[in-house]
Amino acid sequence: TVQDNEMAMEALCRAGDEKADRWRSLGIVWRNVILMALLHIGAVYSILVIPRAKPLTWVWSYVCFIVTALGVTAGAHRLWSHRSYRAKLPLRVFLAAANSMAFQNDIYEWARDHRVHHKYSETDADPHNATRGFFFAHIGWLFVRKHSDVIEKGRKLDVTDLLADPVVQFQRRYYKTSVLIMCFLVPTVVPWYFWGETLWNSYFLASILRYTVSLNVTWLVNSAAHMYGNRPYDQNISPRENRWVTFGAIGEGFHNFHHTFPFDYSTSEFGLRFNPTTCFIDLMCWMGLASNRKKASVETIQSRKLRTGDGSYGAVNSTQDKEA
Fold first, then answer.
1. CA separation, residue 228 to residues 45, 53, 126, 244, 260 (Å)
2. CB 216: neighbour CB atoms within 10 A?
3. Does residue 260 fall inside a structural domain?
4. Distance of alpha carbon 196 from alpha carbon 187, whole angstroms
5. What is the rounded CA–CA span in Å between residue 235 and residue 308?
């Protein structure tokens, strides 16, 4: 009947409105969804470009990946978020440029949000709260607006050190320009200018593929390293030791250790083992560009393992460095 049809249409419209309301309540940032989808499509295409590119372009792309990773691990993370060592101006400038190549928000915002992540881990104030699932912790958190708790807690943190750092503030002021130059122009132009690579090949390999891989490697620390692995230092927290993440993220996969001893510049009990970022910081110290490396003592680590660990690691490494 006509009345039944009208009721059916009304129910259908009501269901559609409810679904739309649910999407709106999530605060989806469609710009980010679309841009990330296009970026990953470009990365898949980039794989087809690899055989056509020159071997030097492969090497260059990997070098750019390492520089990108150091901008996050040695820069935004270990230096500016945790102040686990000190760096002189030339090193800070290099790490800021490398961080712009990473294009994962400017140093100030990255470090502030990371401090919130540590202080309120696995709560609504955690920007990439892993209790909301792998997808959210990995990339989904970028597809929705920040939870109000993240914003509120972030405003209460002490970030005076970041505000007082001229390198951090310079990068923040000129962030878009520095990203354009470091993340896209430099990786693309160098192969074309120095060894005659096509701009097409160098753009898709050294820029698009390198950038996409570096993003996902960083995100795996937020997702996989909070869900898969053992917890030898503190079984009461979510972060895990994940060797696969360590390999990809050049030393950032010892995540249970890191959340237990966040001040430790090595983010690991095992010194240089599987930790290129630690090697880099040690090299900078040897060159006189870094100093005051903070390290958890052997006794502190052993005591914590016995008290709260899951028993998956045995005796502390006898070659553990003392306070650097």
1. 30, 36, 19, 10, 17
2. 16
3. no
4. 14
5. 6
Neighbours of 307 (CB within 10 A): 9
What are the backbone dihedrals phi and psi of residue 239, each rounded to the nearest 5 degrees, phi first? -55, 145
CB atoms within 10 A of CB 23: 10
Retrieve residue 206's tokens.
Answer: 């050294």
Report whether 85 contacts 292 (CB < 8 A). yes
* Cα–Cα distance, 29 to 103 (Å, whole number): 18
CA dist., res. 91 & res. 282, Å (int)? 13
* 23 contact partners, CB below 8 Å, separation of at least 6: none
Residue 139 counted as domain residue: yes
Query: Is residue 135 assigned to a domain?
Result: yes
- How many CA within 13 A on the CB side of residue 75? 32
CA distance 124 to 130: 10
Are 253 and 244 contacting, i.e. CB atoms less than 8 angstroms apart? yes
Reading the block at residue 267, the tokens are 């983010």
Q: What is the pLDDT along the chain (324 residues), one digit of tens a residue?
A: 545 555 555 655 565 455 444 444 568 999 999 999 999 999 999 999 999 999 999 999 999 999 999 999 999 999 999 999 999 999 999 999 999 999 999 999 999 999 999 999 999 999 999 999 999 999 999 999 999 999 999 999 999 999 999 999 999 999 999 999 999 999 999 999 999 999 999 999 999 999 999 999 999 999 999 999 999 999 999 999 999 999 999 999 999 999 999 999 999 988 667 899 999 999 999 999 999 999 999 999 999 999 999 998 754 443 344 333
DSSP annotation string for 203-251: IIIIIIIHHHHHHHHHHHHHTGGGTSSB-SS-TTSS--B-HHHHHHTTS
Residue 217 structural domain: 28-232
Residue 62 domain-assigned (yes or no): yes
Q: How many domains does the chain have?
A: 1
If one counts every other C-beta atom within 10 angstroms of the C-beta of residue 189, the result is 17
Q: Which of 4, 92, 49 is nearest to 208 (CA)?
A: 49
